[in-house]
Amino acid sequence: RGSSLTDFADKIGVDAASLVQMLFHLGEMVTATQSVGDETLELLGDELNYVVEVVSPEDEDRELLESFDIEFGADEGNEDDLVIRPPVVTVMGHVDHGKTKLLDALRGANVVAGEAGGITQHIGAYQVHTDVDGEDRRITFIDTPGHEAFTAMRARGSQSSDIAILVVAADDGVMPQTVEALNHAKAAGVPIVVAVNKIDKPEADPTKVRGQLTEYGLVPEEYGGDAMFVDVSAKSGINLDKLLEAVVLTADASLDLRANPGQDAQGLVVEAHLDRGRGPVATILVQRGTLRVGDSIVAGPAHGRVRAMLDEHGVEMAEADPGRPAMVLGLSSVPGAGQNFIVVEDDRMARQIAEKREARERAALQAKRRVRRTLEDFMASMEKGESQELNLILKGDVSGSVEALEDALAALEVGEEVSLRVIDRGVGAITEANVNLAAASDAIIIGFNVRAQGKAAELADREGVEIKYYSVIYQAIEEIEAALKGMLKPEY
Ligand code: GDP
What we know:
Blueprint: H1 5-12, H2 16-25, H3 38-48, H4 57-66, E1 83-84, E2 88-93, H5 99-109, E3 125-132, E4 135-142, H6 148-155, E5 163-169, H7 176-187, E6 192-197, H8 206-215, E7 228-231, H9 240-254, E8 258-259, E9 266-275, E10 279-288, E11 291-292, E12 296-299, E13 302-310, E14 316-317, E15 319-320, E16 325-331, E17 340-344, H10 347-371, H11 375-383, E18 389-396, H12 399-410, E19 419-427, H13 432-441, E20 443-448, H14 454-463, E21 467-470, H15 473-487
Parallel strand pairs: 2-4, 2-5, 5-6, 6-7, 18-19, 18-20, 20-21
Antiparallel strand pairs: 1-8, 3-4, 9-10, 9-17, 10-16, 11-15, 12-13, 12-17, 13-14, 13-16
Helix pairs in contact: 6-13, 11-15, 12-15, 13-14
């Protein structure tokens, strides 16, 4: 799990240099500070007669919880105890296609007359009601446009949403981020409902959008496929009810969304921040069980007792059932988006689990800082014959410059031993999603005439992801080429 040979040597109480030597004889060229893969660790284990078990952070957390007799995602209990829960939906799509507008429109249109509070606030998630075949059905929306939330949660191995609404502007058609979003949802095995947006515009061409997405394997029902397409206007409020209905029908057709409200609550943190007056405030999504005021909970490395819960209208709630988002007050610190929360027996247990998690997060962060690479590191390590793969994410101001950069990189002669991979590309500012991807794949981000969005820069800093900025293509190429040349392994 990205640990270095030195870390491993420390763990098993041997000298790192001897491990380097041993690996050399086994045909692997590795230095002591380099991060090594699971296979290499297992290989060493065999050689040393150690049983090496590679434990993922998720497994590690599962073990921690098990030691307290807790299972995250535990059995839902008897069939009879299960009730239908609302689907949880994320809205994805290309920039400017109307994700924010759609989320606002759905949030605003659904304020039930006379409901206390009235004005809906942004808390990161909200629930709406819709009438389907005379039945009142609920849908939960993750209120974070783009796929930042999706990526952050997936990076943590947690499944946040049941259904994705893919927004495509009918006057613009399928664009790069449409395809990217589509691939994200497919990879997560999440059914897609397409909202063909901006149909109020005279130049809207919803038929073209259907044709384009069919080419990507997302075939509309009316063409014999299994994806529901709904023409909407987030601006004029056209067909929003039809879109909600399509979500419910898709959920009923392809998912079995039921949960047992009778057990201790578990779920995910959607977003969290420090409020000056109220202290740490976290919006959580209850995935199973029922969360109640007074419950002792752990959320990531934070713990506490639920002091109060508020819904998206700012109204206090005594309990939150499966599929319900709620703003929770009373935590000791601010947990991260995508981390899980669980209700435990008492405050003491909550604190113990939280302390263990916090210690582990700190250790993992330090390890990450040590192994993450910068372009300069690449050059330095090249001379030693270490790095063999350079992952890049390209972001530019216009698609032409991104393509030019990628073409020029593809044309670089780098030999067989080193490889350069462009793992993602796009137009626009560097986003948190880009940084998350870079962190997950040890990539460097190249910004061509674009900068990192506010929070993305902070995240990159925290995760130790390098962002290089250029405004001249050949300069970018020169530096990358130099790094790659330096990466070539010397011959032994
Ligand atoms: P996002 O980047 O996907 O979140 O897109 P936004 O929601 O910020 O919308 C981008 C622009 O398109 C804004 O100027 C919106 O007012 C506009 N817009 C969004 N939905 C519609 C729509 O249904 N009709 C029209 N005419 N404009 C829309």
